[in-house]
Amino acid sequence: MFENILDEEERGQVGIGTLIVFIAMVLVAAIAAGVLINTAGFLQTQAEATGEEASSQVGDRIEVQSAAGVTISNQSVSEVNVTVSKSPGANNIDLEEVTYEAVTNSNVNQAVLNNSDISALTAESSGNNVITDQSDRYIITFDADADFGSDLGGGDRVTLTFTTASGASTVEELRVPDSLVDRSAVSL
Description:
By secondary structure, the chain is α+β, with helices and mostly antiparallel strands. The chain folds into 2 domains: 1-59; 62-187, Immunoglobulins (Immunoglobulin-like). The chain is built from 2 helices and 12 strands. Strands 1, 2, 6, 8, 9 and 12 form a 6-stranded antiparallel sheet that branches. A 4-stranded antiparallel sheet has the order 5-4-10-11, with no helix packed on it. A hairpin with a 5-residue loop joins β10 (157-163) and β11 (169-175).
């Protein structure tokens, strides 16, 4: 079964061939391991970025604290103030990068919040209109005729959707009371 190899040259060639095959296998394994490590690192980085982005889309929301119709003339609301803050756990929200969509029975309007329509209520504003703290409150003023298509009469509804720069949305439905007689302001 086993032969005795008497020729020393043949014996060395078998050992060198085995060594070459072994080295080739080690090199192939090292290259494959390098590719796997690079791919795993890339996938980990991509997964972290996706997780952070998804978290922002869910968490970086605006919360509507209250809404009021403050200018009432001819039995219609012509100006609406919406008080907003950021949701718990949200990052800083720049209100000048927030888009809104106002849907009424007869009109749809989409726009970015305008600096002149934003005012700080309880926040220390340096003119940048960024909600940085959970206790910060800002008032967003809407001109009903310009932003909703017409003044709001008794019983009218407006659905406001605020979308932050990260993609988080908040939907708020405002309802005007049926009667506006002898009122200078109403809660919506």
